[in-house]
Every structure is written in structure tokens, then in C-alpha cells.
Structure to design on (415 residues):
């Protein structure tokens, strides 16, 4: 749809990731009669969607609740989530023609292909008559003479009556998320809470797990600040040459700022047994006579290389030593380490490896019913720009779709 000379678009959408696509399609579906323009800095829309859910695109979750999100404004977060029932997500995709299924509460496309999700959304977008401009960056945003002025990298200044900022955060910059949207929001007077990488592997200060790259173990990971427990997650732990990865560590990465540089990861490799149960197991093995050497002592309990590395971390001179020579204090040390093997956290792998952005625009500065700015009427803020980050499991895409839907309904006057 072309724009007549002198005609000002009613709505400009900046960023065409998940929330921008949801906004544009909601305006189209609900009969918005004004002109809309959508601007995307990448050469095509929705690139980040292709990497979600390990290529399967975890669209959402049936268990949407504040406990699955992190924000500096929990009461404002809860108010926003009340406007975003899971049925709204399901209805959005039903109308797109995408068949969905649920797996342990997680929502996926029936075809298990993230590329298909993008295909159906792009098909509808092409039918919506949206003026779409890719390879187009908004460098500055101003308010003057009763309208927004979007300064583009082409030198053009695009006016608009209302603006939906859906630029994404800073995570995965190779897919277009460079954090530029925060500067646009600041220009409108918004506060941006400190940003940090989330759902990202953790690095260790020392090589506690040296030599375990590629090893995996089921267990429970806890994040401590000194001795204060910040959070704990159970699942598959992945050992790397720099530290730890896997969903439990991704989840805990969202809590790392609370540790204020004192973060410690504690691994419980036998979470189904109490410490006394592990100690009893080891003592029984010592008396059975089947396990002759220290190298054999943990066979059948934890992955072999993991068990050997744990024993080496305790300073045993040789794993070939007879278990009969173990003193009771040493047996207790082995049991205690199986339940509490620690690594001092030095940080994360950073923005390149992060799935989402923690921190962002304060939720107190938006209307939870509409995502409209409380500071600049006519400006709407969506998705990863906002100070709300979810756990693994579709919570972040749920937030992206639904903030885009709410913003579009308000910006288009269809709510």
C-alpha cells in the first residue's frame, strides 16, 4: 500500500520480530482502516524466530503466571500478565492457520518447524497491505508538532501519529537485536533498568570441571550469593570448557545480577538421595568388596568421567588407590561433594549466546492494558524492550506475541 504525498501514517511499527508481527497482523485482522508502515532493519522479518525452541519454535505455555517471569516491578508485571491469557496466543495462531499442539504444557506448531511459523505469518503479512520496509533503521525518534518523527538511516524523516516500538532487546545481536530501541525509548523520556544477558551459559572462575567438555548429567543446580540461596533448578546439566550450560543453568542466569559478583553454582548430582543416603550408599559399597579401587567406587551412580573429575577435585593422589584405605572423613567428603560440588561464577557467555534480555524499560511506565507509554501518549512499547524476562518454556514468546497484540488494539483503536 503506497502513501500519498503529505499523508501521515496512522501507525508506524518499528521492528518486525515476534511482537512487531503480532502487532501488524492484529491491526489487519481487526479492521484497522488507517495507514500503517512497518520498519525492519534486517533484510527480512522474524529472523530470530527461526532459532527458538531448538528450531521447533516454542510458541507459548499453558502455565502463564508471574512466578515464571523476572522484573524489577513484580506488581506491574502481574497486572500485564492478567491481560495476556494463553487463549489469546492460541486464538492468534488459529487465525493464522497454524495448527498447534502442547507438550508438557509447552505450545509448539504441530509440524515442529519454526520456519513454518514464520512462513504462515509472512503469508498473512503479505495479504495485509502493510507498507513494509526492510533494511531500514530508525536512528532517532522525536515528538514535534503533534506527531512522531522517525529519522531513518536513509536520511528520510518519516512522520507518524502513533508508534509501536518492537525492536527487541540486546540478546543475539547477529539476528538484529542490538539494543537500539532503548535509545529511542529514552528519547521519549523512559527509564531503562540495567540490562543483562538471560537464558545463557555460565562461566566459572576456576577449572573445577576441567576435562568434562561435552559431558551431561542429570542433577540439581543451585545459585548462591555467598551462602544465600537465590534459586535452584533440576534437569540436564551440561559441562563445558568454560563452565556450565543446560536449561537449569539458563534459568539461573536470570538471577545472576542478584548475586552482585558473589555467584556460586552448587551441583547436586544425586538429588533424589539425602546426604545421609549418599553416605550410606558409599559405605555399603566399601563393605561389599565389589569395588576395589577409588576409580570404581562411583560406577553406576553418575557419568563415569564426571565421577572421576569429582574425585580428582578432592585431591586424591591416585584413583587407583584401594577403597579399603579410605578414611571415614574422606568418604564423607565424597558424599558431600556429590551433593554440593561448587563453582565460583565469573559471568556469562554474554549477549551473543543469550536467548533473551533481562532488564529494560520499567513496567511502571506503561499501561498494562494497552502497552501505551504513560510518559508519551501514542507511543507503545512491546516485547523484549520491557523489563520482563521469562523462563525457558515459551514464556518469552508468549510475552512478545501478547504485548504486540495489546499495543495494536490500542494504537488502532480496536480495543
Amino acid at each position: 500500500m503506497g502513501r500519498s504525498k503529505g499523508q501521515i501514517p496512522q501507525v508506524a511499527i518499528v521492528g518486525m520480530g515476534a511482537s512487531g508481527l503480532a502487532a501488524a497482523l492484529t491491526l489487519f485482522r481487526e479492521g484497522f482502516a488507517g495507514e500503517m508502515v512497518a520498519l525492519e532493519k534486517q533484510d527480512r522479518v522474524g529472523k530470530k524466530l527461526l532459532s527458538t525452541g531448538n528450531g521447533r519454535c516454542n510458541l507459548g505455555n499453558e502455565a502463564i503466571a508471574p512466578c515464571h517471569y523476572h522484573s524489577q516491578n513484580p506488581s506491574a508485571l502481574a497486572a500485564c500478565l492478567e491481560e495476556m491469557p494463553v487463549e489469546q496466543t492460541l486464538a492468534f495462531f488459529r487465525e493464522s492457520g497454524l495448527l498447534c499442539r502442547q507438550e508438557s504444557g509447552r505450545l509448539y506448531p504441530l509440524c515442529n518447524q519454526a520456519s513454518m511459523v514464520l512462513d504462515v505469518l509472512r503469508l498473512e503479512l503479505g495479504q495485509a497491505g502493510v507498507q513494509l520496509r526492510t533494511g531500514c533503521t530508525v536512528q532517532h525518534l522525536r515528538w514535534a508538532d503533534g506527531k512522531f518523527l522517525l529519522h531513518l538511516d536513509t536520511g528520510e524523516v518519516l512522520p507518524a501519529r502513533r508508534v509501536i516500538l518492537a525492536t527487541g532487546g540486546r540478546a543475539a545481536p547477529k539476528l538484529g537485536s542490538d539494543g537500539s530501541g532503548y535509545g529511542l525509548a529514552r528519547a521519549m523520556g523512559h527509564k531503562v533498568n540495567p540490562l543483562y544477558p538471560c537464558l545463557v551459559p555460565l562461566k566459572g572462575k576456576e577449572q573445577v570441571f576441567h576435562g568434562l567438555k561435552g559431558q551431561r548429567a542429570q542433577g540439581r543446580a543451585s545459585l548462591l550469593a555467598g551462602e544465600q540461596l537465590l534459586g535452584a533448578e533440576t534437569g540436564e546439566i551440561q559441562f563445558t570448557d568454560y563452565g556450565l550450560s543446560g536449561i537449569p543453568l539458563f534459568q539461573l542466569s536470570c538471577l545472576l545480577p542478584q548475586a552482585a559478583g558473589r555467584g556460586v553454582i552448587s551441583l547436586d548430582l544425586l538429588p533424589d538421595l539425602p546426604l545421609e543416603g549418599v553416605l550410606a550408599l558409599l559405605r555399603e559399597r566399601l563393605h561389599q568388596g565389589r569395588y576395589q579401587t577409588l576409580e570404581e567406587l562411583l560406577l553406576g551412580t553418575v557419568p563415569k568421567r564426571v565421577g572421576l573429575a569429582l574425585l580428582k577435585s578432592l585431591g586424591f593422589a591416585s584413583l587407583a588407590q584401594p577403597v579399603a584405605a579410605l578414611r571415614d572423613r574422606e568418604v564423607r567428603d565424597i558424599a558431600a561433594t556429590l551433593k554440593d560440588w561448587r563453582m565460583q561464577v565469573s559471568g556469562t557467555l554474554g549477549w551473543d549466546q543469550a536467548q533473551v534480555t533481562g532488564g529494560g524499560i520499567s513496567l511502571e511506565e506503561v499501561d498494562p492494558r494497552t502497552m501505551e507509554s504513560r510518559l508519551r501518549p501514542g507511543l507503545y512499547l512491546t516485547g523484549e524492550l520491557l523489563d520482563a524476562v521469562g523462563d525457558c518454556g515459551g514464556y518469552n514468546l508468549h510475552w512478545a506475541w501478547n504485548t504486540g497484540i495489546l499495543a495494536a488494539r490500542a494504537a488502532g483503536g480496536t480495543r
Notes: The radius of gyration is 25 Å. The chain is about 25% helix and 25% strand. The mean pLDDT is 94.
